[in-house]
Design goal:
The protein is built from 11 helices and 12 strands. It is of the alpha/beta class. The chain has one domain: Rossmann fold, CATH 3.40.50. Strand 5, helix 4 and strand 6 form a beta-alpha-beta unit. The structure holds NADP nicotinamide-adenine-dinucleotide phosphate (NAP).
């Protein structure tokens, strides 16, 4: 049980990111002082969205320059904080060097941030944004689970540097977080394990991978059809509430799958087609062999196609409903609002 003093500042790493943006908004709206640890505090293009929210809210934002790869670089930002949110980690599915571009920042960054928390002498709780990617690697893995369902007890055992390296980076980083947490007794660790995050962010031009898939759909990349790819998804605004409650509910404990519903790209495309009939959205399923043939030229390696396309995906979100009071909004509302935001921002071409 941990009681966080609401008047103390709260550190958020990667505060200018897509997921963190809605969390910082929630913290500011609730009147907290946010220590925003970011790579580029002077980049107004990135900070202007948070600055505008701060101006209109009860809370205060202070920026600190920090890089996941620089040891000690979070020490200043964490000063005086009882609560730390560690969200920063590269989310990219196509990188040149998986070790350097994904694993190093995820793993070294986790060590840096958590060691800064221990050194601070003030931190009582750390909430790490992990992922469902630390729970499973490929949809095929679910075939070996009880009820073919993902739960908080499951760990990803199939990803590595050459297959699903982003998922591998999230797995090693979360494992490291639990190891460091168990070596000290000053703060407790709570992890948030979201499925695919969608929905309008505070910055309509964000670079998270979440935006790419929506833009691809809107701009016609799947007009001939979409692969039968099942996933879980959650609204970025609900994810902010999950983070907030994980930080401030004294009894919050352990890992939490944060996922509104089990779905597929085809189902999400169907919701969009109803709302935006003039856009070239996917209406049919692409046969697996076609995806297998064309996959590599579209950035989908054959092993990924073989182990994911056509497999059912199911996750149990009951812990988050019971212990973090989560109540998820329907995905139809999430994707519709997201698509609308991207049209307005010119990220999806007007019809
Ligand atoms: P994002 O917008 O790309 O955010 C990633 C953040 O990490 C950015 O703020 C980025 O800083 C920061 N970062 C990357 N490398 C860094 C470095 N070397 N030093 C300091 N900061 C660094 O992506 P996101 O979707 O919001 O992801 C945020 C977190 O959610 C990640 O931990 C991701 O794994 C997790 N997650 C995301 C999803 C999803 O579907 N989006 C699902 C599950 C979990 P800059 O602003 O300077 O680039």
């Amino acid at each position: 049980m941990v009681n966080i003093d609401q008047s103390k500042p709260v550190m958020v790493t990667g505060a200018t990111g897509y997921v963190a943006g809605r969390l910082v908004e929630k913290l500011l709206d609730e009147g907290h002082t946010v220590h925003a640890a970011v790579r580029s505090p002077d980049n107004k293009e990135k900070t202007k969205y948070l600055d505008k929210i701060a101006e209109q809210s009860k809370g205060t934002i202070k920026y600190f320059k920090a890089d996941l790869l620089d040891e000690g670089s979070f020490d200043e930002a964490v000063k005086g904080c009882e609560l730390v949110y560690h969200t920063a980690s590269p989310f990219s599915l196509n990188v040149a060097d998986p070790q350097k571009d994904l694993v190093d920042p995820a793993l070294k960054g986790t060590r840096n941030v958590l060691n800064a928390a221990t050194k601070s002498g003030t931190v009582k709780r750390v909430v790490v944004t992990s992922s469902c990617a630390a729970i499973y690697g490929d949809a095929k893995d679910l075939q070996n689970l009880p009820n073919n369902t993902l739960t908080e007890d499951v760990w990803n055992t199939t990803s590595n540097l050459s297959h699903q390296p982003y998922s591998y980076s999230k797995t090693v980083a979360e494992k490291e977080a639990w190891k460091i947490a168990n070596e000290q007794n000053q703060w407790d660790l709570v992890t948030i394990n979201p499925s695919f995050v969608l929905g309008p962010g505070i910055n309509p031009h964000a670079t998270s991978e979440s935006f790419d898939i929506m833009k691809q759909m809107g701009n016609g990349d799947f007009k001939m059809g979409a692969p039968h790819y099942e996933i879980g998804a959650v609204d970025v605004r609900d994810l902010a509430i999950a983070h907030y409650n994980a930080g401030f509910m004294p009894e919050a404990k352990g890992r939490h799958i944060i996922s509104a519903a089990d779905t597929s790209f085809l189902e999400l495309g169907g919701y969009l087609r109803e709302a935006f009939p003039n856009y070239p959205l996917p209406s049919r399923k692409l046969p697996k062999f076609l995806v297998w043939l064309a996959g590599p030229s579209q950035g989908l390696p054959r092993k990924m196609v073989a182990n994911n396309i056509g497999y059912p995906w199911k996750a149990d979100n009951s812990k988050s409903r019971k212990e973090l009071n989560m109540n998820y909004r329907p995905l139809k509302e999430t994707v519709t609002a997201f698509f609308e935001q991207l049209i307005e921002a010119g990220e999806i071409k007007q019809r």
